[in-house]
Design goal:
The chain is α+β, with helices and mostly antiparallel strands and 400 residues long. Among the domains are: 189 residues, Muramoyl-pentapeptide Carboxypeptidase, domain 2, CATH 3.30.1380; 66 residues. Helices cover 46% and strands 10% of the residues. The strands form four sheets. The protein has a four-stranded mixed β-sheet. A hairpin with a 5-residue loop joins strand 6 and strand 7. The radius of gyration is 25 Å and the shape is elongated. The N terminus and C terminus are likely disordered.
Amino acid sequence: MTFIFRGKNNQTPRQGFEERKRYKQRINNPNIDFVDTWYEHPNYGLYNEHFEPVILLSDEDQTTTSQFGDYSAPENRAANFVVTAFNNFRESYNAISENTAIPYPLFIDGLVPRKGYVDFDSAYQGYIVETSGILLQRVTQQESKIRNFEDFQTVFKSILLEEIKDRPLSKSGFLLSDKCPINVSGLCVELSNLPYDVDLQKGQMIQSKEFLCYADLAKEAGFYIDKNAPWRLIANLESPAMRTLINQYQRNTTPENVLSRVFRAKTQYDDYEAIRSAMTGIYNQFLSDSPMYTYVSRSKGRNVKSRGLRERIGSYIDAKKWLSHLLEIRMLELGMDMSLFEKNKREVLDTHTLYSVSYDNSLKPGLGKIASFCSAHLKEIYSSRGPIDSYKPTTLKDYR
């Protein structure tokens, strides 16, 4: 029996939910290595075994990524071991296709990568420019309350309380949000430019006869198929085939260690500068747009309106203050219990005071402490998703 799936974004919330639920429950084949990046495994490949947010390590020489070959556009790249695995998969499929009547699956003729690795820093930069503009508009609406950076921080905090879950500020917050493409992991190969939000073509592709051959060979090569975008292959980091390829880059250790030492970078140590840059950038732009403020004073028994010059950021904003800001922002981004903020802040600042002198990067102990709080919370979040099964009947409350 062939099903027609009608899920897409321009539906009412109820229609959208029912159609998405129908898709995820009907696309049921235990012989296919699907990964559900919407419900069961969000952010797959974007955190390590310690639940620390990670991205593909990037450098000017692009040593961690490779091009796929002459058959693909040179800008399409992926992690080195992913490219090797994909070329093995493609060669196997091409050999079968040439010697049998099995064609390529619908919408991915030729198995040519259309999209691969996306540079995280570029993605974050584009996002934070847009987000800063939106937050600046909110700040400007309350300009009468701001004379200096301290006033700005008070106003900004009130705005973040409303905005931050939809508009994270830190790099780690952005990475694990729906604003960041999963391709920053370097683990993805997309074979079509079909829209992600339309289920019709997904259903047609998955229900085609040749899809089983595609799925079998992808699994053999070490790939998951993204259930919500079946033209997207994602490296299965538990697959023996993929783990063997990873270990070729460093012998006598685990694939997890190879990924950590060779291929990945933690975003948590960049969050301090990210939020400092964002907040000071927004305030400096606010100063440029609105350098003067109006205040009322008494003169000769009557109120007189006067104007003053808003203060620039002073040197009094020290590392401890920024560490406190970062902790608060990360806790808000993750939806952590804010009643623990003061306790956590004392621990972070005590750690910074005691150990900062022992490190070349004096901020590292404090940042590490913030990261430990966040990782513990992320572990709770991702572990709690375990009971959700894409193939079983589900209601809205299961995702709360």
